[in-house]
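Hi Y.,

Following your request, here is the sequence exactly as I used it, all 114 residues.
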Amino acid sequence: MNMANPNLLNKLYQRMSAEQEQYRKWLLGQPLGDILNHAAEYTVREDIVMEMSALELPEAQAKALLKSKTPLADVYKEWNKTETHHMEDLRDVIEARADAVIRAEKERSQREGR
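Below is the corresponding structure, written out as tokens. Let me know if you'd prefer a different format.
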């Protein structure tokens, strides 16, 4: 695969950054409840822009995304359709944290019982 030249990738990154800034300005003009309703979308869009700052796409992919006036919104819509393991990951972290607290309490009671 031919990796896109840095200027092409920078153009895509700049377009997505500008798109996110426009979205941010729009969002800040909304009622507080609407802002909260869009908080997750805003965060994922920020993550997409951050990833674009480091991602080295093949030239064909960069050009394909640049054909859109709203590549960030397009990528977000596609991401929103994908199945993620977010809730499963959260459950795992909750259980791991609870287990860590139980272990710490058990170790503390064993030390105090000596």
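Residues 21 and 61 are 23 Å apart (CA to CA).

Thanks again,
Q.
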